[in-house]
What does this fold into?
Amino acid sequence: MKNHSLALRLSAGFGFLFLYAPIVALMVYSFNESKLVTVWGGWSLKWYVELFQNKQIMDAAWVSLKIAFISATLASVLGTLAGFVLSRMGKFRGKTMMAGWVTAPLVMPEVITGLSLLLLFVAMENLFGWPAGRGLTTVIIAHTTFCLAFVAVVVQSRLASMDETLEEAAMDLGAKPVSLFFLITLPLIAPAILSGWLLAFTLSLDDLVIASFVSGPGNSTLPMVIFSKVRLGVTPEINALATLMILVVAIAVIAAIVIMRRQSRIQEP
Amino acid sequence: MITTTTNTTRLTLWQRLQGIRLGRWLVILVPMLWLAAFFFIPFLVVFKISLSEAMIAVPPYSPLLEWDPSRAYATLKITFGNYLFLFESRFYLDAYLSSLRIAAVSTFFTLIIGFPVAYLIAKSGPTMRTVLLSLVILPFWTSFLLRVYAWMSLLKKNGLVNETLLSLGLIDQPLQILQTDVAVYIGIVYTYLPFMILPLYTSLEKMDISLIEAAKDLGAKPWRAFCLVTLPLAKPGIIAGCLLVFIPAVGEFVIPALLGGSDTLMIGRVLWDEFFLNRDWPLASAVAIIMLIVLVGPIMFMRNGNKEAM
It folds into this structure.
């Protein structure tokens, strides 16, 4: 029994080491004075300075943030509706089809999603003249579509694990469907929507393949710029960028976990 | 009005609101129309274009319906040439097979590495469980591209992995790891690991630990108890995790492009090159349609399995 436990601990420890070693190495080398990644030249912040002076990276970061903010918001609205419809509206014609359409983007290879959306946009442009060319709008539509699926799944699982009695009580007391949704259901699923929004935001910030297909010239997102730089060789300012992004995400995730735990403690004393 | 709701007669909230059908359909239609327009219809467009011929024009493919204004009639022009080309050429067949192989091998290793992690988390106490689970989720929230890039500097000839192996005396010359299939396996296993751990954890967490104790009381050795009790109970999680890794890995583009060599053949990369370098949109569409057909089985399986596994 003891041996078994030790073996388990060791193999799980290997799993965690595997998950974190590359990230830690990358963060440490972001403070390396030397341009050569393997040679340690002492601690320095020079790659951070260089990063903030790089106009191409900063512009792309701004484009990415705008796209991520708008797509995450749109995806949260549509995804919440989809998750609500799938878990609270009983049976209706087309429900199976809708469930399929909602979950399929989760696993669809990105090259297929990207290619199919681009070909759709080109066909639409030929038919109706919209969207004229490709740019922010087309990337936002594409990101909203695949992020919607993630929000819907998060919201749906929250609704599924949630008892309907509160909603039923409100209805028995005469609440109209619209006020029932906004006064009872929405506050109850707000943490799920928030984590869905955060997930959508990071997924959109992270996406390279789909954005490469559907964005137009002059609208490079941050991953597109990173990809083209990285392909040419390892550049130390990317280490600095990665470290900053990881820190921001880590802080956001920890904050989200703390908020969610506090919320669940209030609801289930 | 006081209603007693029992499980047998309990209606869903919305069944009780039959009166407001319009509002109900509006709520259903908004996400449905969005998904139809930007998820379902695009596949029809891809299919349509895969049946046309490549042209040097904008858009770079021939129209399927050719309208002749002078005689006021349309001709339908369909070609299966793109598909024939895919089947006749050894290159594309090899690319499909090698993608499936790389995805399958990576999925297997993801399972081997992910299982103990998921098991340990499921067996931990509540606080430890939250901490470990957050540790698994954290990399999943950080940029995929940057995590692949982190491996590039580790796996280089003079990278940390080679340096460590050299200093431990395990090798006497740096190994060529970057730009080989091994690097692609490492990259896929690494980036998709959380997708394996989470569903495994979900199904292991629900498992009743007393079943294993019962097996041990009845004289089963730990390994036998694991094979006969734990594994079958974790089956939904194993299936869900494997599909969540396997399906996107087949079409992977970024990992083979950054970590793989010029001889690493993956269909996602072939599609990308066909589209962006050769600009043959109809052929790229045909590549996508065949890839989709290969993946339809696993995707349907995923959807049906979803209800029990997650």
